[in-house]
C-alpha cells in the first residue's frame, strides 16, 4: 500500500524530548515500513525515519506559538498549502493526516482518500463542517465532545516496546512525567507526595504559556529533597528515570484523550496511579496494572496499594494491547475501510 503520513510541524519526528503526537507518528511510520508498505512521511526536515522523508519545514516551529504567534500561524498555513500541492502531484492509496486543523479544511479537495487522526480534544464545530470526512479517534471517550463526526475507527496509540526496558526492582520514589500545566495535575501530585511522605521526581517540560504558572505556583513547592524537578529529558534518560520509579503519579485534571506516558510507564513495569477521567478507564484495569481513583483523597490512599500490583502484569498489558504493531494493524484496517468508502466518490471526481 502507498501511504502518505502527515505529521505536525511543531516538533520533529521523533521528537528530541517531549512530543506525544510526533512519537506516535514515528512509531506508526516505522511499523508500516516493517510490514512492507511504501510510506512517505511529511514532517520537519530534521526528522529521522525509515520511511521516505518529505521535508515540510526546515525545523520545528513550536517556540513560535509563544514568541511570534503570527509567524506560527503563517508557517501552519504555508505548510498546509505545501503539503496539499505535493499531494496533488502524487498518487497514494491513503493519505493519513495527524495535522488536525487547518489541513482538515482543505483535504476534501484531494483526489486520494484521506483519514485524519484526532490527537487532541475534538472541537465542537467539527460537527458542522466536516461530516463528510473520515476520522480516527485515539479513544472512545474522545468522541463525546463531537459525536456527530464520521469516525471509521478507534485506534489506541502504540509504542515500540523494545525501547522500554522492564525493571522488576524499582527504587523508592514516585514519578511525575510529561508537561507542567494545571490540566496535568502537577500541584495535586506534589500534594499527594507530601501527604504520604513519598519522594516525588518530576521530569517534565514547561511550555511558554505555562511559565508564569510554573514560576508562581509550582516552583515554590519544589524543595530539591523530597520534591525534585529534573526538567525535560531526552528519551533515553527519561526511560532510565521511568523504569526505576515505583509508580507513575498522574492526577490529571482534564479528560485526557489518551496519554502516551501511561503506556510507556506500564511497559517498564511501572504501575500508574491516576483519576477515573477521559480515556483512563479504557487503558487500565483498575487494581491490575494501576489505580483509577475517583478523587484526590482516593488517589492519596492508593499509594499503599502499589506493592500489591505485579510489575510483570503492567508489562504484559502493554504487550497485549498497546504495541506499535497493534496500532499499525489497527490503522491498516481503518485505511481499507476508508478506501472502500471513498472509491465511488473519488472516481466520480
Question: What features would you describe in this structure?
Answer:
The protein is an alpha/beta fold and 349 residues long. The chain folds into two domains: 2-160 and 323-348, Glycogen Phosphorylase B (Rossmann fold, 3-Layer(aba) Sandwich), CATH 3.40.50; 161-321, Rossmann fold. Helices cover 36% and strands 17% of the residues. It has twelve helices and 13 strands. It has helices at 20-34, 64-67, 69-88, 126-129, 186-195, 211-218, 235-243, 260-267, 280-283, 296-301, 311-321, 324-348, and strands spanning 2-6, 38-43, 52-55, 94-97, 114-118, 134-137, 151-154, 174-179, 200-205, 227-231, 247-250, 272-275, 290-293. A seven-stranded parallel sheet has the order 3-2-1-4-5-6-7, covered by helices on one side. Strand 5, helix 4 (126-129) and strand 6 (134-137) form a beta-alpha-beta unit. It is globular and about 60 Å long. The mean pLDDT is 90.
Can you tag this structure with a few keywords?
349 residues; alpha/beta; Rossmann fold; 2 domains; seven-stranded parallel sheet; six-stranded parallel sheet; 12 helices; 13 strands; 36% helix; globular
Quick rundown:
This protein has 2 domains: 2-160 and 323-348, Glycogen Phosphorylase B (Rossmann fold, 3-Layer(aba) Sandwich), CATH 3.40.50.2000; 161-321, Glycogen Phosphorylase B (Rossmann fold), CATH 3.40.50.2000. The protein contains 12 helices and 13 strands.
In terms of DSSP E residues, the strand content is 15-25%
- Widest sheet: strand order? 3-2-1-4-5-6-7
The radius of gyration is: 20 Å
Q: Kindly provide the name of the CATH class of the largest domain.
A: Alpha Beta
CATH superfamily of the largest domain: Glycogen Phosphorylase B
- How many individual helices? 12
Number of domains: 2
Structural class: alpha/beta
Mean pLDDT: 90
Amino acid at each position: 500500500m502507498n501511504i502518505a503520513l502527515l505529521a505536525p510541524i511543531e516538533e520533529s519526528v521523533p521528537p528530541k524530548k517531549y512530543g506525544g503526537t510526533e512519537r506516535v507518528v514515528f512509531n506508526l511510520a516505522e511499523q508500516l515500513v516493517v510490514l512492507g508498505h511504501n510510506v512517505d512521511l511529511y514532517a520537519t526536515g530534521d526528522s529521522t525515519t525509515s520511511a521516505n522523508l518529505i521535508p515540510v519545514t526546515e525545523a520545528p516551529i513550536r517556540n513560535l506559538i509563544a514568541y511570534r504567534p503570527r509567524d506560527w500561524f503563517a508557517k501552519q498555513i504555508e505548510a498546509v498549502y505545501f503539503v496539499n500541492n505535493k499531494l496533488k502531484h502524487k498518487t497514494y492509496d491513503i493519505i493519513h493526516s495527524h495535522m488536525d486543523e487547518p489541513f482538515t479544511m482543505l483535504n476534501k479537495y484531494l483526489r486520494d482518500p484521506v483519514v485524519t487522526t484526532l490527537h487532541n480534544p475534538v472541537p465542537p464545530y467539527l460537527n458542522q463542517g466536516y461530516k463528510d470526512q473520515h476520522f480516527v479517534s485515539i479513544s472512545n471517550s474522545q468522541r463525546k465532545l463531537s459525536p456527530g463526526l464520521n469516525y471509521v475507527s478507534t485506534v489506541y496509540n502504540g509504542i515500540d516496546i523494545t525501547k522500554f526496558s522492564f525493571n522488576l526492582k524499582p527504587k523508592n520514589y514516585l514519578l511525575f512525567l510529561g508537561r507542567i500545566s494545571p490540566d496535568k495535575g502537577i500541584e495535586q501530585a506534589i500534594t499527594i507526595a507530601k501527604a504520604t511522605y513519598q519522594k516525588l521526581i518530576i521530569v517534565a517540560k514547561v511550555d511558554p504559556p505555562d511559565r508564569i504558572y510554573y514560576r508562581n505556583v509550582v516552583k515554590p513547592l519544589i524543595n530539591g529533597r523530597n520534591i525534585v524537578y529534573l526538567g525535560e529529558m531526552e528519551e533515553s534518560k527519561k526511560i532510565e528515570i521511568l523504569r526505576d520509579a515505583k509508580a507513575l503519579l498522574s492526577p490529571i485534571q482534564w479528560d485526557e484523550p489518551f496519554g502516551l506516558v501511561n503506556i510507556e510507564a506500564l511497559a517498564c513495569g511501572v504501575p500508574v496511579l491516576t483519576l477515573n477521567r477521559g480515556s483512563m478507564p479504557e487503558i487500565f484495569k483498575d487494581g491490575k496494572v494501576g489505580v483509577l481513583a475517583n478523587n484526590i483523597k482516593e488517589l492519596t490512599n492508593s499509594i499503599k496499594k502499589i506493592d500489591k500490583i505485579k510489575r510483570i502484569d503492567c508489562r504484559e498489558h502493554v504487550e497485549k494491547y498497546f504495541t506499535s504493531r497493534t496500532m499499525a494493524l489497527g490503522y491498516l484496517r481503518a485505511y481499507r475501510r476508508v478506501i472502500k468508502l471513498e472509491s465511488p466518490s473519488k472516481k466520480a471526481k
